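tool=predict chain=A
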Amino acid sequence: MNMLSQEEAFARIRLLRSPNVGPVSYRQLLRRFGSAQAALEALPDLAGRGGAAYRPAPEGRIADEVQAVRRAGARYLFHDSADYPPLLAQLGSAPPILTVRGDAALAARPCVAIVGARNCSAAAVKLARQFAGELAEMGFVIASGLARGIDGAAHQAALAGGTIGVIASGIDIVYPPEHADLQEQVASQGLLLAEQPPGTEPLARHFPSRNRIIAGLAAGTLVVEAAPRSGSLITARLAAEAGREVMAIPGSPLDARAQGCNQLIREGAVLVQCAADVAELLSAFDGTPRSTFRDSAPPPAFEVEELADEPADIASLLTIAPVAVDELIRQSGAPAAAVQLALLELELAGSLVRHAGGRVSRAG
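tool=predict ok
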């Protein structure tokens, strides 16, 4: 693309922030009028057909936004920029403007999205770390949503190799609060993306929009653990709609948190058991996915689990797969003594099985 003038860049931001202008109408207006400046001048004339709400966003508000982006150490990335994520650009609903911190060139490398439950089992967290770390070593960039649980584990394991975090808030907002350090690491060592204007708090309606970006960045989406109604399954559905691979790790039918993955596999997602399975599938990806998963049902009501602040209890971290007590302490964030007391209570209640090597599991 030709280098945008400051006036046209400002006009593009203002156009997108105008009432009733979304990604699709933004592109239509640019095509019709040739520039954002011309489109803004035409908006009042469109009011008769589009309603009184068709009016440009106030210049002062956009000037304040630009300053906020600069204060956050971020920059704007426009849809026709050379370093706009190439796979994301293929989506008709791709964000026309992103705010970014970090190395935008990461998005041009082979990418896999890893998503899953927030209130996940410790065994699933271990799997997420293993898959993300090994795939990063193979040269894949790991994209996820910086949420608790699976997302956070995937980002942490992939920091050295390259990771992209997509947040549902403004670029200057940290959520969840305990991921402040991780979000800063992703921004400084990898790439942090936001669609919402700076200062925007994470609201329920923003998470599905974030999920479409995660799915759009990658050739394939891997779901590690997910309940039947969860944001991770929305990401899988959006990946399928975009013509990308959908992969899932199977789990025990006795664990509700595995039901979402098992359901995906039953409906055509590719079952994967190791990072090599993912690498083989995506290395051969030519735009025609091997997975036959196509979710024709309406999307489920989004459960806003991302906005819950209470930590998961010890019992919720257990599955029938044995896991080290040290892993439970690390995942729960609780003192070791508190974890041991909780495990003792579960054992006395007949809900815990102890295994060799200091590992424990939920009683089947």
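The two ends are 59 Å apart (CA to CA). Residues 48-52, 296-311 have pLDDT under 50 and may be disordered.
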